[in-house]
Amino acid sequence: MGQIVIKTDVCVVGAGHAGCEAALACARMGLETVIFTVSADSIALMPCNPNIGGSSKGHLVREVDALGGEMGKNIDHTFIQSKMLNLSKGPAVHSLRAQADKAEYSRRMRMILENQDHLTIKQAEVCELLTKEAGEEGRARGVERYVTGVRIFTGAVYEAKAVILCTGTYLNARCLCGEAITQTGPNGLQAATHLTDSLKKLGIGMRRFKTGTPARMDKRSIDFSRMQEQKGDEKVVPFSFSTNPEDVQIAQDSCWLTYTNEKTHEIIRANLDRSPIYAGIIEGTGPRYCPSIEDKVVKFAEKDRHQVFIEPEGRFTNEMYVGGMSSSLPEDVQLEMYRTVPGLEHCKIVRNAYAIEYDCIDARQLYPTLEFKKIAGLFSAGQFNGSSGYEEAAAQGILAGINAGRKCQGKDPVMIDRSEGYLGVLVDDLVTKDNREPYRMMTSRAEYRLLLRQDNADLRLREKGFESGLISEGQIRHLEEKRRMIREEVERLQKTVIGASSVNQGFLEKNNSALLKTGTTLAELMCRPELSYEKLAEIDPDRKRLPQEVLEQVEIEIKYQGYIERQQRQVEQYKKMEKKKIPESIDYDDVKSLRLEARQKLKEFRPVSVGQASRISGVSPADISVLLVYLEHEGRRQ
Ligand SMILES: Cc1cc2nc3c(=O)[nH]c(=O)nc-3n(C[C@H](O)[C@H](O)[C@H](O)COP(=O)(O)OP(=O)(O)OC[C@H]3O[C@@H](n4cnc5c(N)ncnc54)[C@H](O)[C@@H]3O)c2cc1C
Fold first, then answer.
1. Domain 5-214+358-467 belongs to what topology?
2. With the CA atoms of 569, 573, 579 and 585 taken in that order, what torsion angle do they form, in degrees rounded to the nearest 10?
3. What's the pLDDT at 412?
4. Given ligand 1 and candidates 167, 171, 189, 351, which is best to mutate, with the most ligand atoms within 8 Å of its CB?
5. Could you tell me the distance, in angstroms and rounded to a whole number, from the CA of residue 170 to the centre of ligand 1?
6. What backbone torsions phi and psi does residue 80 show, to the nearest 5 degrees?
7. Is the distance from the beta carbon of residue 614 to the nearest atom of ligand 1 less than 6 Å?
């Protein structure tokens, strides 16, 4: 029999959180798409924590949803507990987090993929990336090769115009549990052992990272009376802007909080020489912000206890996740250490904790569109790009999908900058900075975080989703209507004057608010910390009934107006530099007076804008001035 050759538009290698969003985006844009996975039974698998969202990650889920992605909708259908975090702090850091029924999350995502037009699921290991040499025109733009498709293990070839690599933690994966080491991917799944070599041959620089997961316990062996119960919110807020809030008011499951103690730490310290990390067996670099329990005990030696969250893995399983205690210690040490924790004295381990090492890339080889600079048509997203986390993966996945799709359609790429979304911050950090460990999103990484709130992701990004064909006209009309209602209500509150009548003074007195000497507007009253839109209803009888999503924006816009305006001015400054584009064909040898180091870095990283160039380490403000003069001169000359 001859070799099978299948023609398609896009190949997505990987059906994890990045791959699912990437493939759905391409297929929904009308492109014939094939998504490959080592196992069709592990689509959208959550190999670690059983939750979606959390601080800053919740923002990413909302952004994926605003762009037309699936993660938010999927968790709205499959959560078992939900909480809005950080409510005691300002709105910039409010973040939604939901416990997922893992099996259901994965099953439903697979069903969405299976029923998506233009999308085919293929269970197969992709072993080789196929490319052809670039011509002179490509080389002038720094492109060395064009992608042409992939080859799978059986030898079958899939020819494509674009390929998106979303291989997660599977490339040359190795799992470690003390001295027991297996060459497998997460959950004992088959590792992908061929693709790295093919990528290396094409000149793609690879690196090795590691991460880890805690043990899962049998619920029946846990004494919950020794732990603090953690319940979900009474009124659940959905992730997706399209979910009806009534549909997420369901009966929720509880999580539980307990702590490690000196005894736990003693056992860990006594067995450090048997931990693959401390014994030097692990080569990969792990995430600083998601440390193993061994790391916590060594690095924070002064702490006498660490939090341990016991979280259900689903509704129809007895497995419980032991959050905060990931480890690669041997099985016997694990059992001993877990059994020192109150409530876990008689615990039975269903799955051992383990660490995993895998191949990934230094994402500085990519443009902010997530396309490889040297291999046109090749895109990548997720853990493969050196990030960590389901939400980080999904966010990159949808962007890579949109841009691979647009490339096939001959359209300009979509870019999201640092002032437009956490997705912009994530991608810019990945493609510009030297990240020596798995990158995790955090609110502190976003400099314009008062503008990048989880509540306004639709107002920030829906149009970009619409432009790409992932958001419908109906959804855009809904957004425009929402904008109009917000604007009109803010204007009404700014114009409506409240006099010093006895009714108004009585209202203020009741709310411990300073009495009026003269008339003031409702907006000014709302700025007082002790007053809110809801409270002012008593002295504002003319207000219309407005949707909750509108009221939330009105309240934030008025209460934080000064801060928001200040941040908007900073964004204007930032945008000026981002708008100064650097032509793809620039020859840095032509830019005289650049320092040698800056010239080398700029040649290597090929930034798309002066703004991005200014964030590359080794490029100084003086180099940026030289570059600006050169670009201005060239602009005039042309
Ligand atoms: C043990 C462990 C612990 C983790 N701990 C944490 C944590 O504490 N915090 C955190 O935020 N994140 C953690 N993660 C990471 C989290 O699982 C990932 O960030 C997330 O799943 C990444 O999504 P992804 O889509 O990039 O890749 P994955 O979800 O890993 O999906 C990769 C997909 O690629 C497929 N694939 C790979 N290579 C090939 C190939 N050659 N051919 C065909 N298919 C291929 C696989 O079958 C799979 O479908 C952990 C992961 C593991 C495994």
1. FAD/NAD(P)-binding domain (3.50.50)
2. -160
3. 96
4. 167
5. 7
6. -125, -10
7. no
- Ligand 1 mutation target, pool 12, 17, 289, most atoms within 8 A of CB: 17
- In angstroms, the Cα distances linking 286 to 172, 319, 329, 361, 524 are 16, 26, 15, 14, 49
pTM (2 decimals)?
A: 0.95
Write the DSSP assignment of 364-416 as a string of letters: GGB-TTSBBSSEETEEE-GGGGTB-SHHHHHHHHHHHHHHHHHHHTTPPPP--
272-329, pLDDT tens digit by residue?
999 887 777 777 777 777 789 999 999 999 999 999 999 999 999 999 999 999 999 9
Token pair, residue 66, equals 């605003």
Q: Longest C-alpha distance within the chain, in Å?
A: 93
- CB of 14 sitting under 6 A from ligand 1: yes
Beta bridge partners of 380: 165
Domain at 216-356, CATH from 3.30.950.10, 1.20.1560.10, 3.40.50.970, 2.40.30.260: 2.40.30.260
- CA–centroid distance, 18 to ligand 1, in Å, is 9
Whether 1 has a pLDDT exceeding 70, the answer reads no
Q: Where in the chain is the domain with CATH 1.10.150.570?
A: 580-637
Question: Does residue 602 have its Cβ closer than 6 Å to ligand 1?
Answer: no
Task: Please identify, by atom number, the ligand 1 atom nearest to the C-alpha of residue 45.
Answer: 29
Helix, strand, or coil (residue 118): coil
Q: What would the CATH number be for the domain defined by 580-637?
A: 1.10.150.570
Per-residue pLDDT reduced to its tens digit, 543-572: 999 999 999 999 999 999 999 999 999 999
The letter for the amino acid at 377 is: G
Rounded Cα gap, residues 483 and 59, in angstroms: 20
Classify domain 488-566 by CATH architecture. Orthogonal Bundle (1.10)
CATH 1.10.10.1800 residue ranges in the chain?
A: 488-566
**Segment (H or E) for 129:** strand 126-133
Give the containing element (helix H, strand E) for 81.
strand 79-85
Provide CATH 3.50.50.60 ranges for the chain: 5-214+358-467
Is ligand 1 within 6 A of the CB of residue 312?
Answer: no
* CB distance 166 to ligand 1 below 6 Å: yes
Residues 345-387 pLDDT 10s: 999 999 999 999 999 999 999 999 999 999 999 999 999 999 9
